[in-house]
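Support case: user asked for a sample of complex input and structure output to validate their parser. Sending the pair below.
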Amino acid sequence: MSAELILTETYAGHEYLAPPPHEMMPAIQDGIRTRRRRKAAVGAFAAVALVAGGAVAVGGVLNGGGAAPTPGTRVGAPSGTAQKHPAAPAVPVVTLTAGWLPAGSREVARSSVYGHASRSWLIARDTYLTLSSGAADKPDTFSRPITVNGRRATESDGPKLYTLQFLLPSGATARVSISAPDRTGAAQTGRRVAASVRDGQRVPVAPVEYTIGTAPSGLALRGISIGAERGTVYTYAPAAATGPIPPTQQVQVTSTRMLPPHIGDASYDSNGHLVGRAAAGRPVRGHQSVVMTWSGGTTLWVEGLLAPGRTIQIDGGTRASTLEDLYRLAASIRR
Amino acid sequence: VEFEEFARRTLPGLVRYAVMLTGDRELAQDVVQEVMVRAHARWRRIQRTDRPELYVKTMVTHEYLSWRRRWAVRSITAVPDADLDRPSAGDPAADPALRDADRADVWAQLRTLPRQQRAVLALRYYEGLTDTEIAEVLDCRPATVRSYATRALATLRLDATNPTNAGANR
């Protein structure tokens, strides 16, 4: 039997695996709405960061541990040099807290990036609740007005995402989102959490797992995200940058369990054009690195720098850093 | 054509192609969903192209090939070495049950191939594209496509030049 026939039969025999398209349309519509919401939010959050002085530092812990706040950074060094952390001008915090959460809830992520703060909890199997602040979503076909604690609110019960948002006294919008395969009871939980939301407590977002000794030249630490799965993500960008900050103008450092790409792996831009291939970089503290160019910058991976099985990934935008900056940043990372 | 109409019309074929590409129902759903959301954002440009469906199919291919997503699913492709070396249990062409088992083996082994090779096989044997068309989708030379195909078939122990090949890994 020919290879062509074997493969044709194999493929045809597995068409049944394809999910029914009608099941996917709601999720796609959900994705389109989420994309619109994020796009609208980025501008608003960047504006908030500017008002706050545009520079943040770090402190606190995710899991209630005792790590001392780490000094943040504000860098104004000449291009081409890295600089040690100066005094911390601010602390990335989340100010929203939930007075009630379902029993057994476990906080899994916390972040404050460009002034956009959020916290997420695993509240049941495969069910996540996120409390965040920022710009309001535009009403969609699922939206309906309700009242929470006498406040006007909007509830949206989409196919995979429940969202409830309302105005805080500060003028910002608080949002409670529940994502779950089965959203039975999501509205009830969301309303109860929303009714218990308090604003004003400053809960710090502290790095876990590792710290960075230097910052990319001319950039300031603009945010930290910590998560049980992803580790810590540092975001550096120009301190005075306003509006949405594209990846080309920022540097992100991430700790991940994912392996670096293989040498020769390709990178494509959003139009599907080949823009680079993974290549061996030079060792960082004895660990082999991998470098890949993408459409807006360069990424450096170093596996095992923190621990076996952990990879440090540094994404540097073309307008924010050079490859040398990324190497310096990697070399300064400590547990 | 409105995006919604385009999506309804093309979604069934795209999802099936994504399943052949990824070998995984959930990942296929994820890839197509992400691509359709992006396609909606640039729909004006896409609908001006000669073949919007092929354009979106190319987006699906690249989404799958992208290194970012590859990391996320690298762990799901393991097949025990012992299975790869299992001796022949008979002539699969003669027994439908054995043929079914054989297809399942081939399907499992497809998932162990490097992604470019899997894409070439899916585009060639499921979508029926020529090597030149596949080269356009993958943004490489036709010779590279042939090289990927040869290596993939060798790994699967399928010989494209031998019409009597009993196939698979038995």
